[in-house]
Amino acid sequence: MELHPMWHAYPTLETELEETLVLMEDAIHLKNKPVEQAVLQMIHAGGKMLRPAYQLLFSSFGPEKDRKKATAIAAAIEMLHTATLIHDDIVDEAELRRGLSSIRSQFGNSVAVYAGDYLFVSCFKLMANYASSMKSLQMHSKSMESILNGELGQMDNRFNIDLSVADYLEAISGKTAELFALSCAIGAYESGTSRKFAEQAGKIGLAIGMAFQIMDDILDYTQDQQKLGKPVLEDVKQGVYSLPLILALESDATRLRPLLEKRGNLSQAEQHLIFELVHDLGGVTRAQDFAKEYTDQALKLIKKLPATAERDQLAQLTETILSRQS
Amino acid sequence: MELHPMWHAYPTLETELEETLVLMEDAIHLKNKPVEQAVLQMIHAGGKMLRPAYQLLFSSFGPEKDRKKATAIAAAIEMLHTATLIHDDIVDEAELRRGLSSIRSQFGNSVAVYAGDYLFVSCFKLMANYASSMKSLQMHSKSMESILNGELGQMDNRFNIDLSVADYLEAISGKTAELFALSCAIGAYESGTSRKFAEQAGKIGLAIGMAFQIMDDILDYTQDQQKLGKPVLEDVKQGVYSLPLILALESDATRLRPLLEKRGNLSQAEQHLIFELVHDLGGVTRAQDFAKEYTDQALKLIKKLPATAERDQLAQLTETILSRQS
């Protein structure tokens, strides 16, 4: 069980994240032992645990911080995230996840379907056992609904060359930012903050999540396959067009459009050409501007929070992850 | 929107089930309209709505029956059931469901994964919005966990020729009976009965669910494909061995074992031979004895409930569905 080394800089949080991992382990009991093993491996394969970290930091702002409850809800959120990854890998037919074989490539789609379902349910079980209010559970299920609606919406957009920046932003808001928003909001709310404060926390999470996903999509164009643990540009071949490509198309579609119309039949050389064109047409640098805007927005809102050690950690963490190069 | 004609015999319940269907419709809002359409079609394609019916009948036993709440929880339970069917069809690679194309065969596995997830989440959202107590949500998520653990366990048992009757009973308890048990228990509990009464309701549901699944498995050997809307003996080819086959193997494995060892490579003629052997070796009649035992157990427990109109309906419904020939 190894946490990402980035957490050394946040010793209290690091301990709480370790407790969160233990709670996740304790919650997973499958009769099917090989699958249990694979799920545990995936949990330990170095996910960054960002969502639980934000949830834990925000749980310091209310009058009723209860460490056991906070870590249980953190575990629930990370299990939810893991469930969506397992199901995403089915949809994307992904071979690798966090540098390991994905559950679907190890055990097939069938096991991956039920393993993801099991984690979804375990997440709700933890929430039902530890959350203090129905309101939290309502927030939680409403967010999850948005997330899944976002995933289904995204599929609708596959191979849509006319996807606008607004469409993209809406899609990542559901797919990624919503869960960051939930993590922050529920962390605050369950520690006893006002509803208004929790909403503000949610806004911060939303901005962080937007920036995070945009950064992730930029990295597809700036990193090589080994470092990321997933095939570069695989998404393009599968019809998922992200911000750098959309911005490049917006700038000049003449050469990109005929390539994209080949859909799944893109050769290696053609994929490489797309990669080059996205850079040359300024898609990457313009996407970086978007990421910066959301990052600045998050940092500005964080600055307005009560001046505590956790507020400073929120700012530091947000700056760190949103300036990552890999 | 057509309810199964069996409900004409229960006019109050019929109205409540119609309201339940409307609530399910209202809860499903997908941006992806073709998928929304398919999910709605599946809901209207004549599922029997047995689980919500039991939930609704048991909700009459407490002092606080609230019709809006009862139908909302009924809708949540049926959505959960629908979610598991959509995911089961991925796992079983099923072409048909309720006589229609399954979601996966219409839209592919990807859509089916997220559509099932969406229904899972909608179920939790309804529960969180309408249930009065965390205790109910805890019951709910604990049952769901058992159900999924059961599904994953069953996969482990595929092609296991040495599957015992006890293994089978444990598997169907998780796969089917648990959700009937939950429906009955949560119906009672949310209407304000004592916890002890709710537990008793759960026991009745468990017995009904066991009998129901055994009947279902018997029908694979006594009905033709058209009437059931799914391929006869497809399960055997996929390595899922049910009670009639297990009992036939127990009685004499000499001829069955070599056939089953062919696994997925069974010809039509060999499948037919298995069918004959299961009958000749008494597998079907002995399985019928099991179904009868669980049915009698359920009816005996129902008889002990307070003498109300709903108790009589419970008894009538249970006798009807457990003596079905199709």
Automatic annotation (TrEMBL), chains A, B:
Any one Pfam family match given in the protein's UniProt record, by short name: polyprenyl_synt
Cofactor(s) the protein requires to work: Mg(2+)
Keyword Transferase assigned: yes
Gene Ontology terms for molecular function: heptaprenyl diphosphate synthase activity; metal ion binding
Xref: SUPFAM superfamilies: Terpenoid synthases
Enzyme class: transferase
Record's keyword terms, sorted: Magnesium, Metal-binding, Transferase
Domain of life: Bacteria
Biological process according to GO: isoprenoid biosynthetic process
Record-listed E.C. numbers: 2.5.1.30
PANTHER family tied to this protein: ALL TRANS-POLYPRENYL-DIPHOSPHATE SYNTHASE PDSS1, GERANYLGERANYL PYROPHOSPHATE SYNTHASE
Family that this chain belongs to: Belongs to the FPP/GGPP synthase family.
Name of the protein: Polyprenyl synthetase
Source organism of this protein record: Enterococcus italicus (strain DSM 15952 / CCUG 50447 / LMG 22039 / TP 1.5)
